[in-house]
Amino acid sequence: MGFLSLLAVASMPIVQVLLVGVIGAFLASGYSNVLTASAHRDMNKVVFTVFTPALMFASLAKTVTLSDVISWWFMPVNIAITFLVGSALSWIACKILKPPPHFQDLITAFCSTGNLGNLLLIIVPAVCDEDGNPFGNDRSQCRSRGLPYSSLSMALGGLFIWTYTYSLMHKSGTLYHKMQSKCVQRPADSDEEHLEGFNAGDEERNEMNQIEAPLLSGKSDIADNKGFCTNLAEALHQLVQELMTPPTISAIIGFVVGLVPWLKSLIIGDGAPLRVIQDSLDLMGNGTIPCITLILGGNLIQGLRKSVLKRAVIVAIVCIRYVAMPMMGIAVVRAAHGVGFLPHDPLYRYVLMLQFALPPAMNIGTMAQLFDVAQEECSVIYMWTYLVATVALTTWSTVFMSILS
Fold it and tell me: In angstroms, rounded to a whole number, what is the distance separating the alpha carbons of residues 178 and 48?
């Protein structure tokens, strides 16, 4: 496959995202004003509670089998490594650049969380359809191998995104709103001190310090005295809450249905008695990617006008996602293959490498909308990372294929 042909294949899904994003930007602009602020919030809730769970269940239940899970055991490890490496590199970047506190978890989310779902579902079949690809001349056979890889990647990525990344964005939103409440309280304190005198002002300051201390530290005096068991119980409770999100629950149910043959035969297949359930979930799941992309484009209008994110932060995210991460991906996959952890299928290794080179997941924007934090900054980061991905993803795809040929 020549470079120009690969360029067309790898850039097509990115161009599609940008085109749909432009439509979303127009719908949110003053010329149309269809995607208002309330419409954004409502669409995000529908995507979070309906479309994304439907997509994950339908994809997993249809494609995953027990033998696949056993032979592809390294894929969740590989995805965990992408999150671990991205988080470590973002921590270093935050120490150097020193962004505002509520931006640090946002930066970690963008550096660690790749678009492990819809892009792979587009790129891998498109590569299989090209003549001269290194994964076999039989297009249908290549697709039949590639789609389960992509579907499993999407499902596993969703589990990580809606637990780890969701926790990061929730923490970022909580910190941001605490900072906002602190800024609102300060003017009121100043007025009361001016009117009531020094003594009353001292009493007021003491009272407000007792109120603000937990906000600034994220803990209360009671929390400081909690034992290890209490803190562990709270951590487990938080983990259970994150695991109970609709996308995570649907992914777990999809795994169970896919792994249990008699359950799968009830829902999946032309002769399944309950196939209408799968057809309905497929129909709803198909709306996930367009809705998320429209919301992304709509947020772009505000991001271009209101973002306060430093350019150095955007450059750091781009360098981590498109320079450091792909190089680490080559090393990890080659090492795993060398010790016999991976099947001999080069397409499987290609998908594992590609997981390190993908642009950030669009679900981060959905979470930013849900928690009402850094929506404009998310839009600007998306704009630059997806523009750069048009070239970076193509280049790394070429490198990966040359290694696997």
Answer: 25
> Cα–Cα distance between 245 and 59 in angstroms, integer?
18
Closest CA to 370 of 88, 142, 168: 168
Residue 296 reports pLDDT greater than 60: yes
**For 160-167, what is the mean pLDDT?**
85
Stretch among 8-17, 38-47, 339-348, 351-360 having the lowest mean pLDDT:
8-17
Gap between the Cα atoms of 102 and 327, Å rounded: 29
Q: Nearest-CA neighbor of 212 among 238, 234, 171, 180?
A: 180
CB-based contacts of 243, cutoff 8 Å, min separation 6 = 163, 249
Q: How far are the Cα atoms of 57, 145, 308, 346, 349 from residue 135, in angstroms, in the given order? A: 28, 10, 45, 7, 11
User: Which stretches within 64-165 are classed as H helix?
Assistant: 66-71, 74-97, 101-112, 118-129, 139-160
Domain boundaries, the chain: 3-194+217-404
Tallying the residues shown for the chain, one arrives at: 405
Top-tier CATH class for 3-194+217-404: mainly alpha
Listed residue (99, 160, 130) closest to 315, CA to CA: 99
Band the pLDDT of 239: cuts 50, 70, 90.
low
The pLDDT, as a whole number, for residue 81 is 95
* Run of H or E residues at 198: helix 166-217
Q: What is the pTM of this model?
A: 0.72
Instruction: Please give the Cα distance from 301 to 344 (Å, whole number).
Output: 46
- Report how far apart, in Å, the C-alpha atoms of 256 and of each of 35, 54, 159, 253 are: 37, 15, 14, 5
Closest CA to 297 of 92, 87, 21, 102: 21
User: Using CA atoms, how far apart are residues 403 and 326, in angstroms rounded to an integer?
Assistant: 13
Q: How confident is the model at residue 9 (pLDDT cuts 50, 70, 90)?
A: low
Counting other chains too, the contacts that 265-271 makes at CB distance below 8 Å and 24 or more residues apart are 267/61, 268/61, 268/62
Instruction: Compute how many other C-beta atoms are within 10 angstroms of the C-beta atom of residue 347.
Output: 20
Q: Which residue has the tokens 């270093």?
A: 92
pLDDT tens per residue, range 306-331: 556 788 999 999 999 999 999 999 99
DSSP three-state, residue 307: coil
